[in-house]
Amino acid sequence: MKPNDLPQFDTAALRAKDAAHHLHPFTDTKSLNAAGSRVIVRGEGVRIWDSEGNEIIDGMSGLWCVNLGYGRQDLVDAATHQMQTLPFYNAFFKTTTAPATELAALLPQVAPPGFNHVFFTNSGSEGNDTIIRLVRRYWDLMGQPQRKTIISRHNAYHGSTLGGASLGGMSGMHEQGDLPLPGITHIDQPYQLQHGKPGESAHDFGLRAASWLEAKILEVGADKVAAFIGEPVQGAGGVIIPPASYWPEIQRICDKYGLLLISDEVICGFGRLGHWFGCQHPHINSKPDLITFAKGVTSGYLPLGGVLVGDRVAKVLIEQGGDFNHGFTYSGHPTCCAVAIANVSALRNEGVVERVATDTAPYLKAQFATLADHPLVGDVDSLGMVAGLVLYKDNASRTLFDADLGVGYLCRDHCFKNGVVMRAVEERMIIAPPLVMTHAEIDEMIRRIRRSLDDTLAGLRAQGLV
Ligand SMILES: *Cc1c(COP(=O)(O)O)cnc(C)c1O
């Protein structure tokens, strides 16, 4: 689409209003206001446009969620139809709506075996808060109320509510608001660049990283630990892909001590790794008891999240639990559920998930790997439709830039300027593009990323920093 086909927006006026009134998430408002927000006005396929007419390939699927890409009329129609029929009704007092019920019955068809129940929320954070309550309720009902502690990982992301941020392992979040809440503790992440030993194989590192779970269980007391939570691949932490040895060993330890295993699939769910859920990818291959989902369930067209509750927990909760005193006004919101049904149906009917596994992800992997010859780049890796690389000052000796330099942010700004969204996390540059990307679009995205790396390098050279 040409810029002059776009509706006209008064960018300066929008920026001024934004600066005057809008507190953005995870943002230093003062420095944002000095620069001004970019106003995104349109999306089609894998591309977005800003109010100044710039076309940008969305390498991050919005915020890891627009799995089907932008401009899907079927999702719009599902929402329109439901809003015309019944925009909202609740599920609290012996009522339900057709979309909530149909979606609850549809999700077990795509979930791993043994998942037959779902609890709806509005977001991934609320899903994880729900899980904290479900886990503790489960152990109460099991007659082991002392099993309260949930073990998570440093640099995990599980959301931004008090519960979600506590489960998460982001130190910057914990510092603000006296987190984590009691009963939540963390082990180190399986990130070899940070925690590996010289000469250690990825396989050995994976086993060693998993052993930190067992050490923590023994430290807390095996009878006091309720659950372990992890993302199959850490997303916001920087696309940390664990070694293949990691998850099976985590599974073994959870089984050994009877812990509930929680797979936070808010990013990895709904095809992101080429399987319906990340735990099903052979590289992960875990058997969780609870699954958190959100983001891709609606391709981000409307907010929806929830918990897939495995039979082990559901049976106890239903048979013995009585009232579960938890829920949200919009749990099972019919319009959001209608969009989710359309989204899941499209992912299924169009074979998107299989195509990611057999075609799109392997192609992305091969093309992304070509960036490895760039002087700034090392540790190029991908799994499904997430990929990451490390920006090195000297990639031969694996020397990182001084963190204060913010090289990732420089690179991210070049990416935007060159028409591609890439995210910077410390030393890592990451992507999670829409699952429907064509080969030609992947080629174009990689060209724009390479140009941005070149521009970053040129800028650093001009300043004498490399
Ligand atoms: C985004 C995310 C969440 C939080 O979801 P919200 O919808 O933002 O509350 C939780 N877990 C993971 C893995 C996420 O990526």
UniProtKB/TrEMBL annotation:
Its EC number is 2.6.1.62, 2.6.1.96. It is an enzyme of class 2 (transferase). Keywords: Aminotransferase, Pyridoxal phosphate, Transferase. Its cofactor is pyridoxal 5'-phosphate. Pfam families: Aminotran_3. CDD domains: OAT_like (cd00610). One of its GO terms (cellular component) is cytosol. PROSITE patterns: AA_TRANSFER_CLASS_3 (PS00600). GO terms for molecular function: 4-aminobutyrate:pyruvate transaminase activity; adenosylmethionine-8-amino-7-oxononanoate transaminase activity; pyridoxal phosphate binding. NCBIfam families: PRK07480.1. Belongs to the class-III pyridoxal-phosphate-dependent aminotransferase family. This is Aminotransferase. It comes from Thiomonas arsenitoxydans (strain DSM 22701 / CIP 110005 / 3As). The lineage of its organism: Bacteria, Pseudomonadati, Pseudomonadota, Betaproteobacteria, Burkholderiales.
